[in-house]
Amino acid sequence: MTRRTPPHRHTPALAGITLLTVLTGCTTETTGQAHTPTTANTTNSTTAEGTTAPGNSTFTEELANVLPCQVLDDNQVTDLGFDPTTAEFDDVGVAYMCLYRPAPLESPLLSINIDKDWALDELNLTNFNSTEHQVGPLRALLITDDRDPSMCQISMELAETAHVTVRVSWAESQEAACEAAERVAAVVEPELPREQS
Q: Least buried of 74, 87, 96, 109, by fewest C-beta within 10 Å?
């Protein structure tokens, strides 16, 4: 089993998809404030009480080294019904994600987005349907949009200030999108580091 790191391939269509994904599911509630991913400070990770927490420092370092297109290996991607050769890495703007398709130019579209500097509870869910969810041991939110019945998103909390989002778009129905998102989230969850309590 190999893990693939596809080259940067940014097309106008992909940029549009990425922008739509970011604007609809993962924006801040503060008007005019864009979220720009930054490099994590891995040398002085502290807890809320201000003391150094070696476990949290390790988590920060581990998460900073995770590439979205390497979360799953080729066999896992194939088993989930997607083609690993379609992997597209996108880190434009606030995106830090990998996009997959079942085959070139086919749908649905799967994205795995890692946000190491953004809390799950800071997602702007205005005009979205959000329900508390659980993926393995992780607290999560299942998010749908009445305006887009072909999309379903599951965002999982990795730490107080980090989450990962699995999103399926352009599916045959919302039910199909959520079923696919559930399957992917269950496979992604054990592959990611999480903050030790």
A: 74
